[in-house]
Design a protein that fits this description.
The complex is a heterodimer of chains A (about 110) and B (about 110). With about 110 residues, chain A is mostly beta strands. Chain A has no helices and eleven strands. The chains are: A mainly beta (about 110), B mainly beta (about 110).
Chain lengths: ~110, ~110
Amino acid sequence: DSGVTQTPKHLITATGQRVTLRCSPRSGDLSVYWYQQSLDQGLQFLIQYYNGEERAKGNILERFSAQQFPDLHSELNLSSLELGDSALYFCASSGQGNNEQFFGPGTRLTVL
Amino acid sequence: LAKTTQPISMDSYEGQEVNITCSHNNIATNDYITWYQQFPSQGPRFIIQGYKTKVTNEVASLFIPADRKSSTLSLPRVSLSDTAVYYCLVGGRHNTDKLIFGTGTRLQVFP
């Protein structure tokens, strides 16, 4: 158990819909990262937050947005969903710097 | 941005030493090299991190030559449970803009 929790574990929705994925980092970790992993693909970095502020952006679509709240949990919002958005979405957290990222169990999103 | 290249797959047998190499020709001065292990449908798990020369922990060793254009993850005496995908990650400890996962190497360990 990495200490990072993600909800829901599974999510099935239809094209055009909007969903919200939630992540709670390890206790004390200020950084939260979001990744997308499509079937049999590598990990694509989406975005990072540090103590409530956006720190870095990767290949995140404009239809996607995220935020980190004062209690440090984070949410990833995916809108106007397309079939190609079906993937595993991982959240990770870390303490100072990027020394070691602890990954959550992921949310499997299926868009029908 | 430092792009990484790894072999797509490797096979080994239980008890053997496995070496997985990652190429990162454009590594920046402040970039570190980190390796993660991922089992199917699970989040990646940190294995080891280094900057130069050699780093060893209880599960693996990481060898980085002087030019730092490549790195080698060494797994001593692998077991069936080491069957997983291994990712090489290059990035600065304080600069997430250069956070790049490699393509991953799928290691299959046979009995």
